[in-house]
Amino acid sequence: MVTINENYLKLKAGYLFPEIARRVNAFAEANPTAQIIRLGIGDVTEPLPAACREAMIRAVEEMGDRASFRGYGPEQGYEWLRQKIAEHDFQARGCAIDASEIFISDGSKCDCGNILDIFGDTNTIAVTDPVYPVYVDTNVMAGHTGPANEAGEYDGLVYLPISAENHFTAQIPQQKVDLIYLCFPNNPTGATATKEHLQAWVDYARQHGSIILFDAAYEAFITDPSLPHSIFELQGARECAIEFRSFSKNAGFTGTRCAFTVVPKSLQATTSDGSCVDLWKLWNRRQSTKFNGVSYIVQRGAEAVYSPDGRVQVEALIRFYMENARIIREQLTNAGLQVYGGVNAPYVWVKTPDALSSWDFFDKLLQSCHVVGTPGSGFGAAGEGYFRISAFNSRENVIQAMERITAKFRA
Ligand code: MLT
To answer: What is the model's pTM?
Structure first.
């Protein structure tokens, strides 16, 4: 018989969101008249910006004409999209990122997992707790951990606890770690990092020869002008960081699929005998071998995000979801719940009332309010006693969900 990758057997239960979907579907089947409002997974609900749709329609037309038809594109993405990203997302913020250092992909979830292909198996890996589960699960799948304990913590990973006490920003570790996953604005807590905090991480990474895997998928939701949008705004980050970005949440591309990863050409790591290797070359080689690029049509749609109309439309989308976040924060606070996040991020992180466990609160909200959120413990042991509410939904649903919750908890 063929053998399997036994690391998969170490994974705890299902991936968080399919597990939530399973429970919600069971509830919906048993309660067919319940009007369930889903504020669990951070999936967008509002239509694609008109500028993106129009650009994609034009691209479809081009594909229907022999003269403008396109087959395989560059595995790294089309130059015109990479240029726009470099100018608008990085150079405009003073980051020295060149278009050639940007790799277009079909999602930052995929890239966060795929990036492990270019790293060795003996690195010490640090994650915050709670954390976006993809960072942990992909390391488990790659065999970088031992088994999990009762609390779901995997042997071999360094967990950096984040809580209200440290404003949901991890303390710099005392020990040396090689790879560090940071996510700001943070999924799941909605916390943000100041320039000083990120600079301390960059300084740590440079001092220890570590690499920061910086997930900035939610940077567009930053409203405070003093906060950094990119790790490359910090001095020295070109020598120690890779950044993941996405069009999913800002431009509503969760179903359309387009993202990008920035790997600076100055970033190096070593072989087991100590020789230095450029990580850009390895990622370029990996993508050229295992990936055939994002479709021309979708890349044209993503390019339109940077057009004058596209920028205005994307800003309106962000304002829309952030108004949802404001309503959620305000209503839950009025209901007597303790809330965090939701100011520079589309996620509101709620302390569960009456010391309920995260899953008990999930069941209570589902059964008594028909509202779905995400149990904090699904993001790690330190997420126990918390609950995440996503601001991605229609205004009507958000208001309705908050009315149901406040009626329940004020009573
Ligand atoms: C979430 O709800 O955490 C997000 O949808 C995850 C993702 O973007 O993959």
So the answer is: 0.96
